[in-house]
Known about the structure:
Elements: H1 4-8, E1 9-12, E2 18-19, H2 38-42, H3 45-55, H4 64-71, E3 90-94, E4 102-103, H5 112-123, H6 143-150, E5 157-161, H7 171-177, E6 183-188, H8 195-201, E7 207-211, H9 218-223, E8 224-225, H10 229-239, E9 245-248, E10 251-252, H11 260-269, E11 273-274, E12 277-278, H12 292-295, H13 302-305, H14 311-328, H15 337-342
Parallel strand pairs: 1-3, 3-5, 5-6, 6-7, 7-9, 9-11, 10-12
Antiparallel strand pairs: 1-2, 4-8
Helix pairs in contact: 7-8
Amino acid sequence: MKCKYLDHQICVRTTGEYRLCCISVEQQNKENVTTHNIEQWRNSKIHTEAREKFANNEWPDACAKCRIQEEQGQESQRQKPRQYGPGISHLDLRFGSNCNLKCTMCYPATSSSVNQDHKELLKRGLESPWGNEQFPNYDWYTDERGDWLASLPDLREVYLTGGEPMMVKGLHSFLKKLDSSVEIRFNTNGTIINPNVYEELKRFETVNMCFSIDGIGKVNDYIRWGSDWKSIEQNMFRWAEFVKYKSIGPTVQVMNILDGHNLEQWAKQHDFEIWPNMLYNPQYFNVKNAPDTIKSQAKYFPEWVSQDADEEQQKLFVKVIHTFDKLRNTKINNYIPEVAEAYGIN
């Protein structure tokens, strides 16, 4: 077996930590972009052992998500038909955790705004869904690091996500370092258009913009708290004026599994592709743990909906939603009433 991500891609998390890929589940790695170069990362124990395992037709422990998908007959991340190589041809970068939204399924280490909520809950002496750990706000990009990442000789594609990549102070500077032949891929929440970045992107031959949209109207506004659907829709249309590939990447979970048809209709009407991402964790948002009243109406992802639900996770869902609604002075009933009803939330 082989994995093109191990052989030809460098993935860096919001913390600056190197990872095998964006969905790998290894423990925290000591190799960090702030302390180690790419060669040191690729010669590290975890990277070397993962390559050796694949060479022996064995699955590395960190690659459990791909293994499970392939065992279930699904196409895994590893199997996606995209060309990589030669050399380090692809970068998957999260420049930091700066983000302007408080997405319900997000994590303090990947969103500075979610981290604000986490700190506020602890300050009030309330239980936080993210425990008692303290999280810094991460921002590892410097022009020096941007220089050596952009100067990789075989570079063909750069994927930028976050946090919210449009909030990165050095984003325009980094883009200016790249050759126009490099494909630029963004995953953005669609709330921001930086005029300098907007104009800079026009010089690239290929720009691929995927919008993290989880529903239409109020569904998206609740899940991705702090967003405004009308503004996002207008921004998406502006980007669509020149980007070569435009798509929507919903995070499929309990709260939007019933809104899939609305998202599908909107995407079809406006010529956007849809690339769904199944949410694995936290488990209380995983569609397999949805109440039967939601599962019976779900039209998509039968392999997940058909799995037995964990009632304890359903109780946790209610607890977490009550926490969010109290903190944000809102009610899920006013945004996604069918989900509130399924969980008995009044």
